[in-house]
Specification:
The complex is a heterodimer. Chain A has one domain. Chain A contains 10 helices and no strands. The longest helix of chain A has about 40 residues. Chain A is globular and about 70 Å long. Chain A starts with a helix and ends with a helix. Chain B has one domain: P-loop containing nucleotide triphosphate hydrolases (Rossmann fold, 3-Layer(aba) Sandwich), CATH 3.40.50. In chain B, about 40% of the residues lie in helices and about 20% in strands. Chain B is built from 11 helices and 10 strands. A 6-stranded mixed beta sheet of chain B has the order 6-7-8-3-9-10, with helices on both faces. A 4-stranded antiparallel beta sheet of chain B has the order 2-1-4-5, covered by helices on one side. Classes of the chains: A mainly alpha, B alpha/beta. Chains A and B meet through helix 6 of A and helix 2, strand 6 and helix 3 of B.
């Protein structure tokens, strides 16, 4: 009797696991099909570019303040911490290189991506989710206008376009912050700061790879944001859950993708 | 009333899943030029029926012909082409909250036509004048009262002069004045624009005042049909209960539940443990 109960419990656990995994895989497949649908329905967003520009303002321009301020502070912290470490080895002139490489290769795309996910990704999800909850999406479909083309695609492209620009602004602001602290405050040699940076930062190896990262993060964050919004149950609880999921999933996606991309981009170069 | 029916539904059944059938063998005909009410208590399947007519849901069985097209055989392009000839007023208006009243009404004209901006502007103002809100053209939906929002949504729905108008609970949640205004507008627009209208509603008297013919639904079936006057005089138990809003009749007041005594003995065993904990603690 007891054996049978244990067996039944095990089976039930397995069943639940299977159902859970099945549901997750089904949702992943749905998200993938949704991604393809966005790409196929991007004609309107690109042809009537005004629609995308409007979203660029909400997604990109309105995210600038947080990106610029965060970039400045991250650069200033890098300047302080970098100087502390480098001066132990009498290499404080290399501060410019350290700040620039850290920002351009890693911190720029990653932190800008994380900030973008919480500032713009959550807003996109909440907006689309609420449009669905208030039947605006349904009304659009009823008016024979495809909401994926009219609502989702312009937001998606706005995110993809603004993410690398925001990451670049973050890095530029960070380098300026590093300069302020390192050169103006601590007194590292200005000529060495800039010239070493110019000599060591490679356009293709460092800057281009950083840009590629930020484009990939832009696609990932915006895809997750529009999907979560479109898939949100049309209730207050549903929209709030979807907004949280956007921030959590896209932050994890950024960190995981960053590891994969770094492994692909930089370890190969070092081995040479 | 000449010409073939605008909507012809024959023996349509539908369920969101096999365990929950919503419609059972529903058949109806809607003649051109008429305003037809589909009435019934909440959850009887009338909105589902409206969604099948709009091509939103595909019927599990039976045929649905709308404006001469068999809806279940149309692909998504065909459905979109059909919807251009239809307008729908949603229960709470569903206005685009990021656009002004003017842009809401102009939305379809800009999406589906190449009309010059001057002409779009004239047409929008004409539609807004018809619902008495020309003066609110530059307001945002958040600045409108419920009744005004419903009127703007109505102007938006008729923007491209659809042949068939679908109204999903257009009278719910309105004050008496707005309710009268919307009800009159439905009738006036139908007659002046030569439309055909389907009004899904459970507001008996207001709906009876504007419709030509009524279908009464209960539990996914059409249980009665006829002109409003005939419905008022109907001796059928369900229709009597529905029209007069009586508690007693074929529709029970109580949702099916286990024995009352057993539930009382359970001492609130049905409430969720979390809620119980919160209330005690």
């Amino acid at each position: 009797m007891a054996e049978r109960t244990v067996l039944a419990g095990l089976l039930e656990g397995l069943e639940r696991l299977g159902r859970g995994a099945g549901a997750k895989i089904w949702r992943l497949g749905f998200a993938a099909r949704f991604f393809v649908a966005i790409l196929l329905n991007s004609g309107t967003a690109l042809r009537r570019f005004g629609l995308t520009i409007r979203e660029l303002y909400f997604v990109g321009v309105l995210s600038m303040i947080i990106i610029l301020v965060s970039g400045l502070f991250v650069g200033m912290v890098l300047g302080l911490q970098g100087y502390n470490t480098l001066q132990r080895y009498a290499a404080s002139e290399a501060l410019g290189v350290l700040v620039a490489l850290s920002l351009v290769r890693e911190l720029g795309p990653v932190i800008a991506g994380l900030l973008f996910a919480s500032r713009a990704g959550s807003a996109i999800t909440a907006e689309i989710g609420l449009m669905k909850a208030t039947e605006q999406i349904a009304a659009m479909e009823m008016m024979a206008v495809d909401p994926i083309a009219r609502v989702v695609a312009p937001r998606f492209w706005a995110g993809v376009i603004s993410m690398p620009l925001l990451a670049a602004l973050f890095s530029a602001m960070g380098i300026f912050g590093g300069y302020l602290v390192g050169v103006q405050l601590i007194g590292v040699d200005e000529g060495a700061f800039w010239s070493q940076m110019q000599a060591s930062v490679d356009v293709r190896e460092d800057i281009l790879n950083g840009v590629i990262k930020s484009v990939v993060f832009g696609v990932a964050v915006t895809w997750i944001a529009v999907f979560e919004g479109y898939d949100a149950p049309p209730t207050a609880e549903g929209v709030s859950g979807a907004t949280t999921r956007t921030v959590v999933t896209s932050s994890l996606a950024i960190l995981a993708l960053d590891f994969v991309l770094t492994a692909l981009m930089f370890t190969g170069g070092n081995a040479k | 009333m000449a010409g073939p029916p605008i909507v012809e539904i024959d023996n349509v059944s539908f369920g969101y899943d096999a365990a929950r059938p919503v419609l059972h063998g529903v058949s109806l005909r809607i003649e051109p030029g008429s305003v037809v009410g589909i009435m019934g208590q909440s959850g009887c399947g009338k909105t589902t029926l409206l969604r099948i007519i709009a091509g939103w849901l595909k019927a599990g069985a039976g045929t649905t012909r709308v404006l001469g097209e068999s809806v279940s055989e149309l692909g998504s392009d065909g459905i979109f082409a059909l919807r251009r000839k239809m307008g729908m007023l949603f229960q709470f208006g569903a206005l685009f909250t990021d656009m002004t009243v003017f842009d809401n009404v102009a939305f379809q004209m800009r999406e589906h036509t190449d009309l010059p901006p001057d002409l779009v502007s004239d047409l929008v103002m004409m539609k807004l004048e018809a619902v008495g809100l020309r003066g609110a053209a530059q307001m945002m939906p958040s600045e409108l009262s419920g009744g005004m929002a419903r009127r703007v949504a109505l102007a938006r729905a008729v923007a491209l002069d659809p042949r068939l108008m679908l109204y999903d609970e257009p009278l719910t949640g309105l004050d008496p004045i707005s309710l009268g205004v919307i009800a009159r507008l439905i009738r006036t627009l139908n007659d002046s624009l030569g439309q055909t209208s389907i009004v899904v509603s459970h507001d008996v008297e207001e709906c009876f005042a504007i419709v030509d013919y009524v279908y009464v639904m209960s539990a996914g079936r059409i249980v009665a049909e006829g002109k409003p006057d005939a419905m008022r005089r109907s001796g059928e138990a369900f229709v009597k209960q529905f029209v007069r809003g009586e508690t007693d009749g074929p529709i029970p007041f109580h949702y099916p539940a286990p024995d009352y005594e057993a539930d009382m003995d359970g001492g609130g065993a049905l409430s969720s443990p979390l809620a119980a904990e919160a209330s005690h603690g």
